[in-house]
Amino acid sequence: MTTITFDTLKFVRTLQAANFSEEQAEALSTAIKDVQRESDLATKADLRELEKATKADLRETENRIIYRLTLQMGGMFIANIVALTALYKLFVS
Q1: Would 3 be classed as within a structural domain?
Q2: What is this structure's pTM?
Q3: C-alpha distances in angstroms, 88 versus 12, 61, 63?
Q4: Assigned domain for 72 exists
Q5: Per-residue pLDDT at 1 exceeds 70
Q6: Spatial contact of 69 and 43, defined as CB atoms under 8 Å apart
Q7: Where are the transmembrane segments (predicted)?
Q8: Is residue 42 included in any domain, yes or no?
Q9: Which range of residues forms the domain containing residue 62?
Q10: Contact, 24 vs 15, CB < 8 A?
Q11: Taking CA 56 as the corner, what is the angle to CA 50 and CA 62, rounded to the nearest 5 degrees?
């Protein structure tokens, strides 16, 4: 988890310049700092890791689909050969 720098003094001064009282500015600054500390923000590295994992999962799924389709096509090919052989023997004999 990455820490985001938050200048509370600058924030309080900015709020005071906008006519917030010192107590209001400090309370808001403290609340934002607390939320920031408790939040679990995703970093760019986290997103890259998730992207890699997702791509790997998609590749694995694609390979399983290709494997199953190959088995099905092979089964249909064999079934066609058996059917054609049976028809050939039936009509040629």
Answers
A1: no
A2: 0.53
A3: 92, 40, 37
A4: yes
A5: no
A6: no
A7: 65-88
A8: yes
A9: 8-92
A10: yes
A11: 135
pLDDT in tens, 13-44: 999 999 999 999 999 998 988 888 777 778 89
**What whole-number distance in Å separates Cα of residue 32 and Cα of residue 34?**
5
Tell me, rounded to whole angstroms, the distance of Cα 61 from its chain centroid: 15
Confidence of residue 11 (pLDDT cuts 50, 70, 90): confident
Token pair of 42, please?
């995703």
Enumerate the H helices of the chain as residue ranges: 8-17, 22-38, 44-92
Q: What is the pLDDT of residues 48-90, one digit of tens each?
A: 999 999 999 999 999 999 999 999 999 999 999 999 999 999 9
Work out how many domains the chain is built from and give that number: 1
Is residue 55, in this structure, part of any structural domain at all? Answer: yes
Do residues 2 and 36 lie in contact, with contact meaning Cβ atoms separated by under 8 Å? no
